[in-house]
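Narrative of activities, Objective 1.

The group set out to show that a structural description can be obtained from nothing but a protein's sequence at a throughput compatible with the screening campaign. Below is one input-output pair from the validation batch, recorded exactly as produced.
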Amino acid sequence: MKIDILEFVEGAKKARGIAVIIDVFRAFSTACYAFDSGASRVIATGTADNAFILKKQYNSVVLTGERDEKKIEGFDLGNSPTEIIKSNLEGKTVVLTTTAGTNGLLNAVNAEMVITGSLVNAGAVARYIRSLNPSHVSLVAMGYRAKHSADEDLLCAEIIKSVLGNNTSDFEERIKKLRESTGKRFFDPANLDFSPPTDFFLCTMLNRFDFILRGETRYDGNIDLMKIDY
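Output recorded for this entry:
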């Protein structure tokens, strides 16, 4: 099994085989919590305009996402697991758009299969990939705003690669140290309204969920995230 670690939108475009689009802080952690909170469907889209169009097509839609880390005007929720777990999403359609993660999904056009990656389901992602035994895996760390390398995304890629290689390394201490690097923004009082400390802890709960989210391209170019227990 050939495993490549790539970054940013450019990496998503280069991804081959099974592409794992990784966004730990916070898109694909948020998506996992949305399903865990009862959402019946999560649709990833690239723009706020597309999200508003989707809202007209379904009943009980919750618009979720961010630009510059903050909730988009007219949206119901930001890109925040904390907001998600406080909301009643039972049976609702969640539409998600973010700066990095969802655009990574939409740009992985050369991959045979696209799934999301985050720390909260990294183990399930690795088990799922191993069950398929592909010849090529592309782990794409989307980074901060899809422009700057992010420790949490690269660490998640390393964890998935490690499990695929049957390496039993303990990553817990390195996860905790994210608080001192790329995770420190969650502890800045100026960011409390849109990036609360609880988001850091919710996003770094390694292997909290035993399911993966596989992307299926829709007729309208958006992507349905399909929850598969694993």
